[in-house]
Write a structure and sequence with these properties.
The protein is α/β, with parallel strands linked by helices. The protein contains 19 helices and 14 strands. It has 2 domains: about 200 residues, NAD(P)-binding Rossmann-like Domain (Rossmann fold); about 240 residues, Rossmann fold, CATH 3.40.50.720. The structure holds uridine-5'-diphosphate-xylopyranose.
């Protein structure tokens, strides 16, 4: 099938590339002409495992091409257009739908000038507020476009594993209101259905809400285990034991029970906030939904207070911060707790040195010259009077800890990702303070 993707960001580029990999002929359109030029020569604007190779292969076998205008990207027999444009959080907590609305207006103009030869489905792939797809369907019908239909098809891609998540989905969710659309969407995903991937066909609102509900529930799991980490420190337990004991219950599951400094990234904070706004729009009071972000903010504050308590203040102290990305295997620092903590340490008078294997250049755009940027972990910990682990990079698990011990002026480590074994750290002589264990 001929498919167009509007937006060449994390979601759009991964979707375009993976659909091309499955035999569709895909065009990917982005308003950023320079980004389009770079994509045409295989330059990917962000790191995602396997994406670069797949883009180059698809461009080479002409199943994927890039454009910066809608008219070039679309043709009369395009059968589906995925909207993968940004839906950032607006100041009142709602999803900002400006880019989605603009894209649909442009599509309506295009369809009116260039009538389609067959049914074409416009798919909201970006995370949109509940009710958006239905409203856009009315807008398209009011424009007299009888061959144009709407669908919602939320993505469940995690940064760092986005290609793998698209290629191996747990489920495909489709929101629609007619068999024409369901048939078209099943045709798009037929290779996945042939592999036994379940496709859930629901109404527009259910499909949009599944996305928010899924992310908010995952965020709830993270916020919950973080609260159990705080409690564990008070009652003399270890949070990893709690997570293990809980996770072996298949009704709970072990995933997303790793305690940390608080969730971040470009999705959890935005989606949890947007769901809260949707609840408010409907005049409801649903305490659990609102409590998730309150819990996460409280945890982030508790984490910084723990750091200050363990270090007995940081003014004039040399502190190493290991990890700046909001999680491992990405260079993304959006809503990263690590960045927030580094900035708070600077304000508190610490002499901060930072290291991250992927996110250093992104971090520099925020941290500027307020911190030092180490070339290696060992540079970062040299002469440090305290070391904070804030992102669970595998690289940190393979460190020569004996070397770290000898490089530090004061071998004190606060591990907010519980990467190391307590006994090992104690035997090496560290003052080791893992999250979720009373010491
Ligand atoms: C998330 C959802 O997982 C994905 O399905 C959705 O499409 C987009 O949002 P992402 O934001 O890439 O993906 O990151 P994710 O891996 O979910 O982690 C989110 C945050 O939770 C990160 O800050 C991470 O460090 C934290 N986290 C996650 C934990 O602290 N502990 C865990 O056990 C899991």
């Amino acid at each position: 099938m001929k498919i167009s993707i509007l937006g060449a960001g994390y979601v759009g580029l991964v979707t375009a590339t993976c659909l091309a990999h499955h035999g569709h002929v895909v065009t990917c359109c982005d308003v950023d002409a320079s980004k389009v030029q770079r994509l045409r020569v295989g330059q990917i604007p962000f790191y995602e495992k396997d994406l670069s190779e797949m883009v180059c292969a698809a461009v080479q076998n002409r199943t994927l091409s890039f454009f910066d205008t809608l008219d070039e990207a679309m043709c009369a027999d395009t059968e589906a257009v995925f909207l993968a444009v940004p839906t950032p959080q607006s100041s009142d907590g709602h999803a900002d739908l400006h880019f989605v609305e603009t894209a649909v207006d442009q599509l309506i103009g295009h369809f009116q000038k260039h009538p389609m030869t067959q049914a074409c489905v416009v798919v909201t792939k970006s995370t949109v507020s509940v009710g958006t797809t239905a409203r856009l369907a009315t807008k398209i019908a009011d424009a007299g476009l009888s061959r144009i239909f709407m669908a919602n098809n939320p993505e469940f891609l995690r940064e760092g594993t986005a290609v793998s998540d698209f290629m191996n989905p747990d489920r495909i969710v489709v929101g629609a209101d007619s068999d024409v659309v369901f048939t078209k969407m099943m045709a798009i995903y037929q290779p996945f259905l042939d592999r036994g991937v379940p496709l859930i066909s629901v109404g527009y609102a259910a499909s949009e809400l599944i996305k928010y509900a899924s992310n908010t529930f995952l965020a709830t799991k993270v916020a919950f285990i973080n609260e159990m980490a705080v409690l564990s420190e008070s009652v003399g337990a270890t949070v990893q034991d709690i997570a293990k004991g809980m996770g072996l219950d298949p009704r709970i599951g072990a995933a997303f029970l790793s305690a940390g400094p608080g969730y971040g990234g470009s999705c959890f904070p935005k989606d949890v906030s947007a769901l809260g706004a949707i609840v408010g729009d409907n005049g409801l009071s649903l305490p659990l939904v609102g409590a998730v972000s309150v819990s996460n903010e409280a945890h982030k504050a508790w984490v910084f207070q723990k750091i200050m308590r363990v270090l007995s203040g940081v003014s004039g102290k040399r502190i190493a911060v290991l990890g700046l990305a909001f999680k491992a295997n990405t260079d993304d620092i959006r809503d990263s707790v690590a960045i927030s903590i580094a900035l708070q340490l600077v304000v508190a008078g610490a002499d901060v040195t930072v290291f991250d294997p992927e996110a250093m250049s992104n971090a520099q755009s925020v941290l500027g010259d307020s911190v030092r940027y180490a070339a290696t972990v060992y540079d970062a910990v040299t002469e440090a009077q305290g070391c904070l682990v804030l992102t669970e990079w595998p690289l940190f698990c393979d460190l020569d800890l004996r070397r770290v011990y000898h490089l530090m002026a004061d071998p004190l480590v606060i591990d907010m990702r519980c990467l190391w074994d307590r006994q090992t750290m104690s035997d090496l002589g560290f003052s080791y303070f893992p999250l979720g264990t009373a010491v």
